[in-house]
Amino acid sequence: MSLESVPPKYAQLVQALQRRIESGTYQPGSLLPSEHQLIAEFGVSRPTVVAALRVLREQGWIESQQGKGRFVRGRPAMAAVESNRRGQAYLTSPETDSPGELVEAGAVALPNRVATLLDTQPKSRAFLRRRLVTRDGEPTELVSLWLPLELSEGTDLTSGEPLPQGIREHLKARKGVRFDHIVEQITARMPTAGEAKQLGMPKNVPLLAVFGAVRDASGRPLVVVEVLLPADRHELEDAYPVT
Amino acid sequence: MSLESVPPKYAQLVQALQRRIESGTYQPGSLLPSEHQLIAEFGVSRPTVVAALRVLREQGWIESQQGKGRFVRGRPAMAAVESNRRGQAYLTSPETDSPGELVEAGAVALPNRVATLLDTQPKSRAFLRRRLVTRDGEPTELVSLWLPLELSEGTDLTSGEPLPQGIREHLKARKGVRFDHIVEQITARMPTAGEAKQLGMPKNVPLLAVFGAVRDASGRPLVVVEVLLPADRHELEDAYPVT
DNA sequence: ACCCGACAGGTTGTTTTACCAAGTTTGAGC
DNA sequence: GCTCAAACTTGGTAAAACAACCTGTCGGGT
Lengths: 243, 243
What we know:
The structure is a homodimer.
Chain A: H1 9-23, H2 35-42, H3 46-59, E1 62-65, E2 69-72, H4 86-92, E3 100-109, H5 112-118, E4 125-135, E5 138-148, H6 149-152, H7 167-175, E6 181-189, H8 193-199, E7 207-215, E8 221-230, E9 236-241
Antiparallel strand pairs in A: 1-2, 3-4, 4-5, 5-8, 6-7, 7-8
Helix pairs in contact in A: 1-3
The first copy, chain A, binds a DNA duplex through helix 3.
């Protein structure tokens, strides 16, 4: 009676083949053993082998060609690029993890762009929570969070205290909403006098403005995050496959 | 004798179920018919049904719960957001599709950032091809393409003529290289005097600079694309799932 | 009357055996 | 040298069985 559940056979096969590719046993460009050979070596049936190879192909480790065989591509290089999405971190990790100070928390009239992203009438009101994040004691990013009023009620976001929990978990626990994906808009503009002062940046350096509209699986907007970054100190990096 | 190859049954099932979800026959949140019911209705075997449902789950249309059934999530909202990646279009569609003029084509010393992205020594030389893209007769974007010299030899990129073919196809046909993914860096800065003049923009408006390092499957950099956008006229949009 | 556990019948997840189709390579035979 | 069939490869379909999980119902016990 094993309390630990063993992974299914096809998943074990996936891991075994990944290890062999990473260790160089299977060189990139070479031909992988055929289905029949893998069946003989691992003692499993053909559908099991096929299931494992399908996973590897979908993850980009190998590619297959009908009639010829399956070729090793190597460890997918995309996985090595850590996607550095600014909005993500502030939604999942607790505010107490990133030092900073709360500069605003209360109901405000929505800017046009945020109203559009939230799918509400312009000038309607929503809850705004804005933090100035510091790194090494210096202010570096201005992070704003807009929530519809009905979503902010009954949460700890309206308090002036830093959240000891990720915003994503907090909203799921209190309001039952589930984040699914983010639509991101990136623009650049000159800082206002107030922003330049808060961020301690020269007035002739542009700001990178990242707007992230967080939506549920049906596409309904839940929250909008805005991250303002002085462009001389930050840049955004990301990776994606060529279609 | 059908010359057209019919799609496999599981793919037909995928399409049929997608249509029903989109048309509202299967409402989001509701329970999908069980495997047994789908087998009876479509007259296929269980592995075929399971294969179709696996595709739908991986694409985000449904989610499954062992012991209960499969629930409709709806058309994945991510698919509705057209990913608007600036670098992509210039790599795949022919230059003759986007009006503009070639402003530079020849070997130059690499800027530091591009040399880093191409994984070469700083100040080494590479081929630069720069185009000023116009929309509605107005200049809007400055697109630069850097290639290692050995990759530009024997291609039509060194000529002053617009390519009647996508760069991706051209390089694959002539040099046998295959684009796999792009590592993208986004920054903002003030335009130089020359850039402001070429783009016909005010000097106090920042530029969005998008650097895209195109790599093959092993992560080796092939080409670097730079797109310069006046920030008052363009913004970048993208969507990605919450992990 | 109420509670709780056993059990039956539903669901999806995993594995096996079997067969046919389609693409590629090889080599035997002409 | 050429043709073509055989033998390899992966892709797809069918039928069956077992395991794991959920949800009722039907008991028996308190």
